[in-house]
Design a protein that fits this description.
The complex is a heterodimer of chains A (110) and B (484). Chain A is mostly helical and 110 residues long. Chain A has five helices and no strands. Classes of the chains: A mainly alpha (110), B mainly alpha (484).
Chain lengths: 110, 484
């Protein structure tokens, strides 16, 4: 009978193994594992930060992040794909950032 | 404060020397010695310049308004440009060894990189700022293309396209501010925005803010431009990357401080900048984890630590700004050290510092020591400089009631350590059955550069009051209360 710790670890290891072919104990593998954990933890922290605007909003975002993390995991490889230096991809995100930057402060304070 | 003529030379002198280098580009010895001598001369000019203003047109103030292009030179400016000048000297020595052929034009580009950075740091004028950003973009293109690889050409082309968006956006922002306030001087614009009625102007001013922040994102390589900025660092020659990362840090601080002065007291502006900085800090360091070549790891860590600087600037209190400025200076020092160490590895084994190299510690133990110092400093390990500034950033976040931000800073610090040592183990420590052949040597000038940067990492870590005495007055002047 596996302990809970082993089960979660095994689950994570299998997720990463699915998208990274090669030695399971390589430096690259450890990089992806740490990256996966970092990203999940960061998304939760970012969701909690929404309490600055409104606590109920933070709770809703937190739940949405939890559901998304379960659905999209492993997120490290998708994250890497979304962060390619593809020009169209960067421009797409840049335009979205511009829209958010000009509307969110206006909505909150204008 | 009086008119300071030497301050203008910090920008004008490198431009003049760049013209001379272009004229004599075929004369290798002339180019080399002129470049190194001018780098030393710039350091002396920075040290000799008095605090105050420089007014280009000679009209300081007319009917309460500043008409001319204006440079401001304070203790922070002296300190930041001193560090930049030091890095230019180290870059000049490294470039004189590494670059073969007729390097005059390349040296000219490196000097113009310094000039554009100094221009952005010193200026108190919106037009001058825009010109500095545009010139810096073109210079980056020249410096990276000089590396000659297909990757360098691709990275440059993408970067130039982004310039078309961010640079033009900054111009739109300046036009809006000029239209609303009627002045181009930043101090005058700050005064106008704080005293005039903005009724009906808010949507327009928020659009100006958004374009300004996009320019900030672009110069710093923050999310979402971080993959392209990281390409710029990893495809340029390592000594050039050392100078380019210093340029990015100082320009992001300059633009960040201007955003704080112009828009910092408006609702939700600093909060949105904070979110972008947090995303950059984490995305950069996670992408660093996924690299194997040390240069690629460093490229993403530079981007990530730009996010740390952004966090301090976004919080915007006097203490947080001090922390951000200190972090920026420390970043310049330890990342400069690590990029120059990459240059040393390439000179030694004629290969990229990537996995498969192995056991470098037995061939160059002192080089390994410098790399360890730089890596420990970047990871925020006491008693080195990175520890002091990251601790200040954590305290700044906690003092305004943002423990989540403090946790993210800790994440970045720990993950930087993992990313760096994952790569360093492969290159320096991992035992190899077949040893890599030593094909070249590391010049003494490069060893001296690494030594001085290592000493700075230790001194600023042990005596943080020394750099902070230059930084704190500027932070106190710009600092605001956290709105929540």
């Amino acid at each position: 009978m596996a302990t809970l710790k082993e089960t979660v670890y095994e689950l994570l290891r299998k997720w990463v193994s699915r998208i990274h072919v090669g030695d399971e104990h390589s430096a690259m593998m450890s990089g992806y594992l740490v990256g996966e954990l970092q990203l999940i933890a960061f998304l939760f922290i970012l969701a909690v930060l929404f309490r600055v605007f409104a606590i109920p909003l933070a709770v809703v975002v937190l739940l949405a992040v939890a559901a998304s993390a379960l659905y999209f995991a492993p997120i490290a490889i998708g994250f890497e794909r979304e962060n390619l230096s593809n020009f169209n991809l960067v421009m797409f995100w840049l335009v979205l950032y511009l829209a958010a930057l000009s509307t969110i402060p206006l909505w909150g304070g204008g | 404060m009086s008119n300071q003529p030497l301050v203008a030379l910090i920008v004008v002198a490198p431009i003049l020397v760049a013209v001379l280098l272009n004229l004599g580009y075929g004369k290798i010895r002339f180019s080399k010695y002129l470049f190194i001598a001018s780098a030393f001369a710039l350091l002396i000019i920075v040290l000799l310049s008095g605090y105050g203003y420089h007014w280009f047109a000679g009209h300081p103030i007319f009917q309460g308004l500043r008409l001319s292009l204006e440079y401001v030179f304070t203790p922070y400016h002296k300190f930041a440009l001193f560090i930049l000048s030091l890095l230019l000297i180290f870059t000049a020595f490294a470039a004189s060894v590494s670059v073969v052929g007729k390097p005059g034009v390349y040296y000219a580009f490196l000097l113009l990189c310094y000039a554009s950075t100094a221009m952005a740091v010193l200026t108190n004028d919106l037009y001058h700022l825009w010109i500095a950003v545009e010139v810096a973009s073109l210079i980056i293109a020249g410096v990276v293309i000089a590396a000659g690889s297909p990757g360098a050409h691709r990275a440059t082309l993408k970067y130039m396209f982004i310039t078309g968006f961010a640079g033009a956006g900054l111009a739109v922002s300046l036009a809006i501010l000029l239209g609303v306030t009627g002045v181009a001087n930043i101090s005058d614009a700050v005064y106008a925005l704080s005293t005039m009625s903005l009724e009906g102007f808010m949507p327009t001013i928020y659009m100006a803010y958004a374009f300004f922040v996009i320019a900030w994102i672009y110069v710093a390589g923050m999310a979402p431009t971080h993959p392209i900025k990281a390409d710029i660092y990893r495809y340029s020659l390592p000594h050039a990357a050392a100078l380019l990362q210093a340029q990015a840090k100082l320009m992001m601080v300059a633009i960040g401080l201007i955003i704080l002065r112009l828009f910092g007291s408006m609702p939700f502006t600093r909060e949105s900048m904070l979110v972008i900085s947090l995303i950059t800090a984490i995305f950069g360091v996670v992408l660093a984890l996924m690299q194997s070549d040390l240069r690629h790891v460093l490229a993403y860590i530079v981007v990530s630590h730009g996010g740390l600087v952004g966090i301090g600037l976004s919080i915007g209190t006097a203490y947080a700004i001090s922390a951000a400025l200190f972090q920026a200076i420390n970043d310049i020092i330890y990342m400069g050290l690590l990029f120059l160490a990459c240059e040393a590895i390439i000179l030694l084994v004629k290969r990229d510092p990537a996995a498969g190299l192995g056991n470098l510690i037995s061939k160059a133990p002192s080089l390994a020591l410098f790399i360890f110092i730089g890596s420990f400093a970047a990871s925020g390990i006491p008693p080195l400089n990175g520890f002091q500034s990251e601790l200040m950033l954590i305290n700044a976040a906690l003092s305004v009631g943002l423990p989540e931000v403090a946790v993210v800073i800790l994440f970045v610090s720990v993950t930087t350590f993992i990313a760096l040592f994952k790569s360093i183990y492969e290159i320096i420590l991992r035992p190899k059955k077949v040893e890599s052949e030593v094909l070249g040597s590391i010049p003494n000038s490069l060893y001296a550069s690494l030594f001085i940067l290592s000493v700075l990492c230790i001194v600023f870590g042990l005596i943080p009051q020394l750099p902070l005495s230059f930084i704190n007055p500027m932070a106190a002047e710009v600092g605001l209360a956290w709105p929540h």
